[in-house]
Amino acid sequence: MFSQFSHEIGIIAGPTAFQSDYGEDKNFDNIKGNIGYSVGIVHYMNLALNSDCDCFNRYTYFNDHFMIRNELVYMNVTLDHFGKWVDPSLQSEVANSLRAMHGEVNVIDFGTQLEYYPIPLREFISGNYIFVPYFAMGTQANYYFPSNYSDYGNIITQNEEVFLPKYQNGQVNNGARVAFSATANIGIKIKLTRDSDLMVDMRYQFYFSDWIEGMKPDPSIYTENQRNDSAVTLSLGYIFYL
Questions:
Q1: Which CATH number fits the domain that encloses residue 191?
Q2: How many CB atoms lie within 10 A of CB 211?
Q3: How far apart are CA 201 and CA 185, in angstroms?
Q4: Could you tell me how far CA 176 lies from the centroid of its own chain?
Q5: How far is the CA of 200 from the CAs of 11, 41, 134, 215, 238, in angstroms?
Q6: 238: three-class secondary structure by DSSP
Q7: Is the alpha carbon torsion for 121, 127, 129, 130 positive or negative?
Q8: Residues of the chain predicted below pLDDT 70
Q9: Tens of pLDDT, residues 109-121
Q10: Residue 1 domain-assigned?
Q11: Could you give the number of structural domains in the chain?
Q12: Which residues contact 122 (CB under 8 A, 6 or more apart)?
């Protein structure tokens, strides 16, 4: 089944909303405020099409409804606190300290996923359908290097002076690390030419770590930050058949 297949390669880019320990979990102000971008390259193993003869492989349900996608993606998001705790009307020490905090997360993702197409791929490749939807799940290895700082001073040498107790005593780390994540996608491919497609993709990414942005307040105390970090990305892509 995997001995003969074709390759596709493409580029993707789009906005990313990053949910972290900046602000409260599921707070819409933080979701819309902490938006960055992602850009990457994707590679497909098309199991329905045989590149040796430019013909279709013998039909099986799997090769006509599934594709394997590999990708390398870079994500960058700058982070600030948003919401009621930093409302301009509040001039408390807590509000001022939160407004003075800033962060940036940089992540390089490498992973793979399995895409399912309810419409037969050979029908789409042949041009019998202008577009096809797909659903996907996968895993990623993530190399991340965050940065957190305060307008009040250096967080490393003056941690207790510039950050609230919530972020003291080792709850901030700007070092580079590796984590893993799970992804779930929904998208659509649109036929442009015989050898190229346009792709619109929506992805939810759940990290198996709460350190992606470099902070981890004690979740047993600070219940507003109990979840691991996550991201939602809307991408536009161009795919070319090799």
A1: 2.40.160.20
A2: 20
A3: 7
A4: 18
A5: 12, 14, 10, 32, 9
A6: strand
A7: positive
A8: 1-3, 51-54, 154-164, 168-170, 223-225
A9: 999 999 999 999 9
A10: no
A11: 1
A12: 48, 49, 56, 59, 64
- The owner of tokens 């099409």 is 49
- 81: in domain: yes
Tokens of 43: 């590679």
Q: What is the pTM for the complete model shown?
A: 0.88
CA dist 163 and 227 (Å) reads 21
Q: Quickly tell me which residue has 């394997």 as its tokens.
A: 68
- As given in the structure block, the two tokens for residue 188 are 């659509």
Task: Determine the structural domain holding residue 168 and report its residue range.
Answer: 6-241
58 CA to centre of own chain: 35
The residue among 44, 74, 238 whose CA lies nearest residue 142 is: 74
Q: Which token pair is 32? A: 């819309």
Q: What would the pLDDT profile of 3-15 be if each residue is shown by its tens digit?
A: 578 899 999 999 9
Report the largest interatomic distance among the alpha carbons of the chain, rounded to a whole angstrom: 71
